[in-house]
Design a protein that fits this description.
The protein is mainly alpha-helical. It is 84% helix and 0% strand.
């Protein structure tokens, strides 16, 4: 079985960030702005893990760095799924700001 848990972690982090932004915000526009901001912040660690996964085993050869290198595709897909949720939150910002005009 492949290690797809990184993909599900990214999807869960994105959905949880949207939920947190919608719960914390005072108004509709502020809630969606916070949701977009939180999803960007949730996807950053996944991007960082994916980015350094190829060069980290060259600097420090350890079992966990080799596992990270081996599963970097799934970490990248986790980042992509979290960032896709971020993409879905962005049009909501523009549609709510047009309503306020």
């Amino acid at each position: 079985m492949k290690k797809v848990w990184a993909l599900w972690l990214g999807l869960f982090a994105g959905v949880a960030a949207v939920a947190a932004g919608l719960l914390v915000g005072a108004g509709l526009q502020e809630s969606w702005q916070l949701a977009a901001r939180y999803t960007a912040r949730a996807s950053y660690p996944l991007f960082l893990i994916t980015f350094i996964a190829s060069s980290l085993p060259r600097l420090h050869r350890a079992p966990w760095t080799m596992a990270l290198f081996r599963d970097r595709r799934w970490w990248g897909l986790g980042f992509a799924s979290c960032f896709f949720v971020h993409l879905l939150a962005l049009p909501s910002i523009t549609s709510t700001s047009c309503i306020g005009l």
